[in-house]
Write a structure and sequence with these properties.
By secondary structure, the protein is an alpha+beta fold. Helices cover 53% and strands 11% of the residues. A 5-stranded mixed beta sheet has the order 1-2-8-5-3. A 3-stranded antiparallel beta sheet has the order 4-10-9. Strands 6-7 form a two-stranded antiparallel ribbon. Strand 9 and strand 10 form a beta hairpin. The longest helix is centred in the middle third of the chain and has 32 residues. The protein is globular and about 60 Å long. The relative contact order is 0.17.
């Protein structure tokens, strides 16, 4: 039976996302896109796409001629690597992110969150700009071992530079995005030169010194990887934290659970990313010709993993449409999965869980005033989240 066709930007995904997903899931296990891609909804299939070595993570519709510099930066990201190259760098990153470093970052992040809450306590604020945006920006200083006042430009460059994919696909803002990435890379190369022979106790220094069996990162690898980690940690927290907090405040019983036991914060992060994920359809390209899941793939064919659908698969999760921060930890794909999970996920989870835990402790009567969505974005990003912090 030929798989039916769906358009991933169908307005029905905006107006009734999960109702439409349930409707099409009952019709077929996977779908085709108008341009020949394949869309997988169910968790078993999605996991297999992420795990299968015959697929690699792929950015679709990139015109490399628009900016060879940005295209090269994307090729050097861990997320876009495959096979032995990916395995080698992943090992070095995990070696650097050992427990001592993570515990130290956790203490620093707690202090930053305390300061941010003190700044907004007793006020009506727009949470995205007053809290979710500055939180990861302030973490950049400890991450790279530089004073906070020297990270203002870095944060702006990361915000602009993170639009590499959009710029290469649309051609809009190429010069600004390319300049931002050049500035990030120049900043990191200078920092690397300054740290040689005198490493600190920050994450960047740990990455510099990471070594396994005599193997260490080259300068280019360190610069591109550090840029990717910073961007992933900053952008994920900035955009995903408001979605999780909105889910909590729209479910007062769940917010009450967190207030009663702030240690549930990390579970609230994971359940929030399952229930209200930012990612939409993550593309993977076939590395050769093969048959999989009843589909004949040719090299370069795209398999899309539909994250909101996989996160709420009724075949593996009871009551999948219920937001419940005390449920047994459920698998989600908002950070990707397997070898191509987001390299900044550990940092982002630390930032978001610290924010929720301390808000529950210090602002238990937090109240939702209003919120607004960023129009036209199928991945549902919040434009405004106005709160009374009390």
């Amino acid at each position: 039976m030929t798989a039916p066709e769906i358009e991933l930007r169908d307005p029905r995904f905006q107006s009734d996302r999960y109702g439409y997903i349930d409707e099409i899931r009952a019709e077929h296990t996977h779908f085709r896109t108008p341009d020949g891609g394949h869309v997988f909804l169910n968790q078993d299939d999605v996991m297999e796409v992420f795990r299968c070595e015959q697929f690699r993570f792929a950015f679709a519709d990139i015109d490399e001629t628009k900016s060879p510099y940005l295209a090269n930066a994307i090729r050097h990201e861990l997320l876009n690597m495959h096979g032995d190259q990916h395995f080698r760098l992943s090992r070095l990153v995990k070696h650097a992110l050992r427990d001592r470093m993570i515990e130290g970052m956790a203490e620093v992040i707690d202090g930053i969150v305390d300061d941010l809450i003190a700044e907004v306590k007793g006020k009506q604020v727009e949470f995205c700009t007053t809290f979710a945006d500055p939180l990861p920006a302030r973490v950049l200083g400890p991450m790279f071992g530089v004073p906070y006042e020297k990270t203002d430009g870095l944060n702006d460059w990361i915000k602009a530079g993170g639009r590499k994919l959009d710029a290469l696909q649309s051609g809009v803002g190429i010069a600004e995005v390319e300049d931002a990435n050049r500035n990030i890379h120049d900043f990191l190369r200078k920092l690397l030169a300054d740290r040689r022979g005198a490493p600190g106790d920050d994450l960047f220094s740990e990455l510099m010194q990471a070594e396994i069996d005599g193997d260490r990162m080259s300068e280019d690898e360190l610069v591109y990887l550090s840029s990717e980690l910073a961007s992933a940690g900053v952008d994920t927290t900035r955009t995903q934290l408001p979605l999780i907090l909105l889910a909590l405040l729209e479910h007062p019983d769940e917010w009450a659970k967190l207030v009663a036991d702030p240690k549930l914060a990390l579970r609230a992060v994971d359940e929030g990313m399952r229930y209200a994920p930012l990612p939409w359809a993550i593309p993977h390209a076939a590395t050769g010709d093969f048959e999989w899941c009843g589909v004949e793939f040719k090299e370069g064919d795209i398999a899309f993993t539909l994250v909101p659908a996989a996160n709420r698969d009724p075949a593996v999760l009871n009551d999948p449409h219920r937001f419940n921060i005390t449920r047994d930890r459920a698998r989600h794909f908002a950070f990707g999965y397997g070898m191509h999970a987001c390299p900044g996920s550990q940092l982002a989870r630390m930032e978001m869980s610290a924010a929720l835990r301390k808000l529950a402790e210090q602002a238990p009567n937090l109240r939702l005033v209003e919120h607004a969505w960023d129009d036209g974005q199928v991945y549902r990003m919040l434009k405004r989240l106005v709160l009374e912090v009390r």
